[in-house]
Amino acid sequence: MNPEELYGTWKLIKAVATDAMGRELPMPYGPNPMGTLTLERSGRMMAVLCDGRKSISESEKRPYSSYCGNFQLSATQLITTVDAAAVESRIGSKQIRDITLRDGLLTLRPPRREDGEQRELVWEYIGPA
């Protein structure tokens, strides 16, 4: 994968999840996922994701995730050493995402969660960083 194709700002257009058996789970960021991913030539990245609905019932919590740090690219993975995050346990960790670029869409897939859930985030390029 040519890193030059990845540098810039990307908009989240789809977020899906499946269970360990491959069955569809509720969308992790709701029916209107919202997010921005920035990958800079300097080796810094930032990702912010949330449920983009204008209103959510009082009984629900708005899904939200964010982190940033220095990253490295391989042919198949984006590896970020996290220095700031919404979830404290991510700070200082390495966040590894399988990465594909196909038909102008960037897909990131984090490792399967302990409960078997597999998420997939699809991003569309919106401009230079």
Write the layout of secondary structure elements.
Layout: E1 8-18, E2 33-39, E3 44-51, E4 64-73, E5 77-85, E6 94-102, E7 105-109, E8 118-127
Antiparallel strand pairs: 1-2, 1-8, 2-3, 3-4, 4-5, 5-6, 6-7, 7-8
Describe this protein's structure.
This protein has a single domain, classed as Lipocalin. The model has no long low-confidence stretch (mean pLDDT 96). It has 129 residues and is mainly β. β7 and β8 form a beta hairpin. The protein is built from no helices and 8 strands. The chain has strands at 8-18, 33-39, 44-51, 64-73, 77-85, 94-102, 105-109, 118-127. The protein is 0% helix and 53% strand. The protein has an 8-stranded antiparallel β-barrel.
Domain tally: 1
Question: Any idea what the CATH architecture is?
Answer: Beta Barrel
How many runs of DSSP E, i.e. beta strands? 8
Average pLDDT, rounded to a whole number, is 96
